[in-house]
Amino acid sequence: DDWLSLKPQEPSPSQCCGSGCKPCIYDVYEKELAQWERAKAKQDKSLLMEKKEQSNNSELNPDTFTAFSISLVEQLTEDTYQYKFELPGNSSLRLSLGQHIVLRGMVNGLEVQRAYTPISPGNAEGYFEVLMKHGELLMLASGTGLAPMLPILQSITDDEEDETFVTLVGCFRTFDKIYLKPLLQDLARYWNIRIFYVLSQETSLEKLPWSYRENTYTGRLDEDLIKTIINSCRRKPFVLICGSSAFNEDMTRYLKAAGIEENSCFVF
């Protein structure tokens, strides 16, 4: 059990950006798995700590990832940020014109990697900079109000360069009334998609499959729960609402109480 907890986790298809990165997240997984298997065979956990030697001029190694510290994050527009990374000493990336790098990190507990072309000069010493665009959507859907949300969700997940964070809150009477469970579960595997369920006629989560319990609430979607969900977002989101007239009116009122302006909402 101890060794299994140290075994590298195989990436899901949604974690690969499909850009032909070197190393691809699957390449890294294969190398880490081979390292784990060697360590396990020899019962020597110190072998898991082996690191590739880094060159003195801090050039990037195409076969492995190198850790750099973020020294500055500057917000340029509502959803665009400039990240400055530190390089040791006066070293530089030494990239060719138009060449990109692959950044890897943890988002919502999921390992994600994306390709970026630095905006800093190619000969910049001691640092490099990249631009990242992060929008935020909150979708509030009741029953069949889920329908107009799905094409938007799929357009985001189908676009490798779209880094919009999405939180979908689906309101249904019971667990059995949730539409399109397999599709929703598949969408929830993407690094930038969160899906919550609110079940108005369920009194307990005990009978639900374990994979649903953590992101499901019983009762109604009320003002307090709306505030909790908004506070869990990275920034104030743009909100899409679709349901009955009563649902739409309630959500609009709750959002206003939570500090979301009318021009930051759209009601289908």
TrEMBL record:
Residues 71-134 form the Flavoprotein pyridine nucleotide cytochrome reductase-like FAD-binding domain. The keyword Flavoprotein applies. Pfam families: FAD_binding_6, NAD_binding_1, Oxidored-like. Residues 7-42 form the Oxidoreductase-like domain. Residues 139-251 form the Oxidoreductase FAD/NAD(P)-binding domain. Keywords: FAD, Flavoprotein, Oxidoreductase. This is NADH-cytochrome b5 reductase-like. FAD binds at residues 114, 116, 131, 133. It comes from Pygoscelis adeliae (Adelie penguin).
